[in-house]
Design a protein that fits this description.
The structure is a homodimer.
Chain A: H1 15-22, H2 26-33, H3 41-54, H4 60-67, E1 72-78, H5 83-98, E2 102-108, H6 114-123, E3 128-131, H7 138-146, E4 151-154, E5 164-168, H8 170-183, E6 188-194, H9 199-215, E7 218-224, H10 229-240, E8 248-251, H11 254-267, H12 270-274, E9 277-279, E10 296-299, H13 301-317, E11 325-328, E12 330-333
Parallel strand pairs in A: 1-2, 1-3, 3-4, 4-5, 5-11, 6-7, 6-8, 8-9
Antiparallel strand pairs in A: 10-12
Chain A binds a DNA duplex through helix 2 and helix 4.
InterPro entries (chains A, B): HTH_LacI, LacI/GalR-like_sensor, Lambda_DNA-bd_dom_sf, Peripla_BP_I
Protein name (chains A, B): LacI family DNA-binding transcriptional regulator
Pfam families (chains A, B): LacI, Peripla_BP_3
Chain lengths: 335, 335
DNA sequence: TTGTAAGCGTTATCAA
DNA sequence: TTGATAACGCTTACAA
């Protein structure tokens, strides 16, 4: 009599116990709870009832082991503290949860060896990976692909036939900003970029300089050491030392703009400060703060997250899909 | 001939393959790689060599299934976008990684049913849970304890004989601030708290009011609708409508202070603004920005994270430990 | 439509 | 010190 009602110490309810309670086989329980295969309505009901009565929860470790794929999704993120990134992280993790995936958070720093990251991902048989990290993620996604793990890149230049990408519409955003500077009748606009820019930063700098040239507006590029508040503040000092003060400043992201604004306000009289039109990109929460009132380009991190998870899901269902690129719409927020 | 060298499709290397290559049993491989049980130096070396040659990685799903405990740790966080929280999240996830745990990120919102959270945690046999969420986490941690899952609470009031807590030293911080206002010879200090405060907010409000009373300084409490920038801005309006303008304002956290400052600067002349001493609590990055230069109390999120993970580790090793409370030191940052 | 049984990759037990 | 072997809890052919 192979009746094995091992009363677990951990009070962990197993599919077998549910099966026993419902008077069906363990297989029927599995079929019911994973919505696969044939189950009669009657059996189904009995299972569902027994399951909820016993407080049964599918063990995802076991399921993952069996299917060779867990529903964990690696979330490779750098610079978590950075207003734009933390927004993104929030929306991404929520989008994953809504789609029955679970975010396995992997913070990366410049220093950390990327092979460790790959290791972690593989050890958990993640069913996908979303990368927003700035560090060249090539090594990471190549390895993922070797292991048949779907990858989605967010705001990255890298192209690969088997990875999907989500990009915000930098071209449209820059066009809107260029038009803004044109309407404001600016003559000379400083472009605040960074020494080692991320894809977005570089792309925006290039597009902007080009468009301004088309409009016959002069630009001069200032490269801050880092793309954050301090970087913006330092760029401001450089801007102030220019032979003639520009009447416009385009910061390749909002974070830079905040530092720039504060530094300029600190060093210039209110009237001279007001003569400089400043814009950013991203529309982080701070851009709307009273002290900044920054004109910028909004890219919805929610849409971004939704698109990323959607692409991931599609590729999980069909791993042989061609790599797609989804462009997220942007709007001008004039303040 | 039970030779089973199933060349995996996914190129997933198994312990069996390593064992075969090393000419030992699967058990020996396991013992070597988990540092448990007896293995001769010779066998050990052969295993290690074969493992690295084949690129073997322990399957943590299988390990977790077997041990009834994964090395995943639930990170229950609310309000990810919020400068202080995202710092905390960053440091926590890094601390977990350093200790060979993996953060399973679980964002919570006021609305979300906490039973879903518990579900997720249980389904993955997490070996612990760290909660920083503001929503009353009682239901979550009670369930965790029922399932023998160690819990660490960060900056939460809740007491329970089996959960550990990490708290920042609010009492010391408030004492430092009280002294600051005394030295500045303030007569009337506004206290900016919130309607439904988190533990920290409430605790700070109470302590501060009490200490100021001891020093004979008048206080009046203003409750903002939310503890964020907007909340601070709204509190400022209320402050401005007071019969006599206070000469000090203590914000129960920095985030509120930023909104307060901006709103006051906007509505008051520079000279009148300067007459009000403003302080915050937490020392978020923005506190040091040029526009704010906020005097505040620094609590190190790194220390906090380190303490939390340490407590967790200890309790995982010995689940029957009494609940401990670790207090994190704070300093005054005068700006 | 159902149940049996064979894995999934580990670790733990126990006899050798 | 070693190596079978039995779990861990689930999914899924396959047979009934």
């Amino acid at each position: 009599m192979p009746k094995k009602v091992t009363a677990q110490v951990t009070a962990q309810v197993t599919a077998q116990e549910v099966a026993d309670a419902a008077g069906v086989s363990r297989a029927a329980v599995s079929r019911t709870l994973s919505n696969s295969g044939y189950v009669s309505a009657q059996a189904r009901n009995k299972v569902l009832q027994a399951a909820s009565a016993l407080g049964y929860r599918v063990n995802h470790l076991a399921r993952g082991l069996n299917k060779l794929r867990s529903d964990l999704v690696g979330l490779v993120v750098a610079d978590i503290d950075n207003p734009f990134r933390s927004q993104q992280l929030k929306d991404l993790s929520e989008a994953l949860l809504e789609n029955q995936y679970r975010p396995l958070l992997i913070p990366t720093t410049q220093g950390r060896d990327s092979s460790q990251v790959i290791d972690m991902l593989m050890r958990y048989s993640v069913s996908g990976v979303i990368i927003t990290s700035d560090t060249p993620p090539a090594e990471i996604y190549r390895n993922c692909i070797r292991h048949q793990v779907p990858v989605v890149l967010i705001n990255k230049a890298d192209q690969h036939p088997k990875v999907d990408r989500v990009l915000c519409d930098n071209a449209k955003g820059i066009a809107l900003l260029a038009d803004f500077f044109r309407q404001a009748q600016c003559r000379q606009v400083a472009v605040i970029a960074t020494k080692e820019g991320s894809y977005s930063i570089q792309c925006r700098e290039r597009l902007f300089v080009q468009q301004m040239a088309d409009l016959g507006i002069r630009t001069s590029v200032i490269r801050a050491p880092k793309h954050d508040y301090q970087g913006g503040a330092m760029a401001a000092l450089e801007l102030l030392s220019m032979p003639s003060l520009p009447d416009g400043a385009f910061c390749t992201n909002d974070y830079l703009a905040l530092g720039l604004i504060d530094q300029l306000k600190d060093k210039l009289s209110p009237s001279r400060f007001r003569k400089i039109r400043i814009t950013g990109f991203d529309d982080i929460p701070q851009a709307s703060w009273l002290n900044y009132q920054l004109t910028t380009i909004r890219q919805s991190t929610r849409d971004l997250a939704a698109a990323a998870v959607d692409l991931l899901k599609r590729r999980i269902d069909d791993p042989d899909l061609e790599g797609q690129t989804e462009i997220i719409d942007v709007q001008l927020v004039a303040r």
